[in-house]
What does this fold into?
Amino acid sequence: MADMTTWRFTKGHGTENDFVLVPDLDARLDVDAEMARSLADRRAGIGADGVIRVVPTASATEESVRAMAERAPWFMDYRNADGSVAEMCGNGTRVFAAYLRREGLEGADEFEIATRGGIKGIRIEGEMIATNMGRWRFLDPDRAAADGFDSLVHVDGGDEPWSALSVDLGNPHTVVALPETVVLADVDLTRAPHVKPDPSNGTNVELVRVLGDAHIAMRVHERGVGETRSCGTGVCAAALATSFWAGDAEPTRDWTVDVPGGRLRVRALPGHQVELAGPAALIADGTVDLSAL
It folds into this structure.
């Protein structure tokens, strides 16, 4: 941990998926698991779904991240609220990009950022920020093609497990097509759903309700966090899975996804890539006294 007793921070959110951003432009700070948990604590800390360290890519500890420095000078070093390291966060990329733009660290309308899930392309669309989330894939494409599903999900209070489809967007997702008899708002997500087969590194679980043509509503339980108001990679996974169930083996349409925190757009791109677009807000700046955490 750095020897400083106070750190600067910015609080931001993307469709109410909220983050504490810690600028570390000189790569001097140690935002370890304990520190991330303390900062994200909603009673004793600042409060957030995750913590983002803003650091030069060339200074990342991981060699695989440092290799991205020539294309993407800034690294989104992300931890979940429980302190666990995550590959990336879709909503977090937009908040990260908004911070880089506000601070003058990036000035173009298109640029790239580094994440543990690879380089992500950013495009500014007025009040919206679009992120190329990169390649996606079904974790078990053979079962997906044969059955449309590859796993089962059970929630507390539910009578029967629900069929689900596993989608990889650099982090793992399990998307549930809710039966017509189940009300999305009534599902208990206070505890992590039980997924079978049990993913070795955990998974985010998305519950989906179709609202209309290329329009769905979603709730999500994020691994290492719990239920959140939004999840960018989860929104993409939900749209891609629902498009697949609708008969689009190669998605081409834009999808509108409503989450408790707002509305996002998902666009399939060539080469099995996908783009997420939505708002980002930086709502507060301050300093935190580390000795009080």
